Amino acid sequence: MKILIVEDEPEIARIVGRALEAEGFQCLNCRDGLTALRVFEEQQPDLIVLDLMLPGLDGLEVCARIRQKPGPKDPYILVLTARGEEIDRVIGLSTGADDYMVKPFSPRELVARVRALLRRSLRQGNQSSQVYQTEHFMVDVDRRIATRQLENRELETLDLTTLEFNLLSTFLSYPGRVWQRSQLIEKLWGDDFFGDERVVDTHVARLRKKIELDPANPSFIKTVIGVGYKFED
């Protein structure tokens, strides 16, 4: 699998690349945000190891732009940064990062987290053919198609990332069920998840923007205070 390392400190980039290449990954390297976006579009990596403090265009903006326009692949993004304050982690996850590591870091842990992220796509690829349908939504798991048809509106195909699609599939598979964040993490990422449970809130918010008429007052994905979320249709 192909990994893009975006890091402006040559020694750190060398350590990351050496650790990943030793595990059989193909690594690409760049040192600034604008180059990262260009290489991403050209090479379509499976995962990006992304520093936040970059020259030209910072890592948060790089992450946000990739999530807004992922292209043929919607890569996993592992943020690697010296900024370790809680607010920085929250901001990083809110822009679409899948995991977060603080420098200094263990190369062995970095490899473990990369493998954990990439195993998620293998689980998703092994899903059996299944169609979930409610009054307003339909998800075809095998064909990876999700549609919405609201009152007085034409049927529309939803433009979802891989994780958004799987999250909607999970909700539609059990309408009315209350999901704890930990249960959604287990369902979508598996028991080798590394990171903050609040990443669930980030992806729910992004999904709401794509399926709700008023994301601030959702009609379908409801928050269950103190527990998690449920889908009603």
Task: Outline the structure in words.
The chain is an alpha/beta fold and 233 residues long. It is 40% helix and 21% strand. The protein has eight helices and twelve strands. The strands form three sheets. Strands 2-1-3-4-5 form a five-stranded parallel β-sheet, sandwiched between helices. A hairpin with a 7-residue loop joins strand 8 (145-148) and strand 9. Helix 1 packs across helix 5 (107-125). The radius of gyration is 18 Å and the shape is elongated.
Summarize the structure.
The protein has eight helices and twelve strands.
Mean pLDDT across all amino acids: 86
Task: Indicate the radius of gyration in whole angstroms.
Answer: 18 Å
Main sheet overview: 5 strands, parallel
Shape: elongated
Beta-sheet strand percentage?
Answer: 15-25%
Distance between the termini: 39 Å
- Record the strand order, biggest sheet: 2-1-3-4-5
Q: How many E-type strands?
A: 12
Number of helices: 8
Helix content: 40-55%
Q: H/E series, N to C? A: EHEHEHEHEHEEEEHEHHEE
**Alpha-beta content class:** alpha/beta
Low-confidence parts lasting 5 or more residues at pLDDT below 50? 122-128
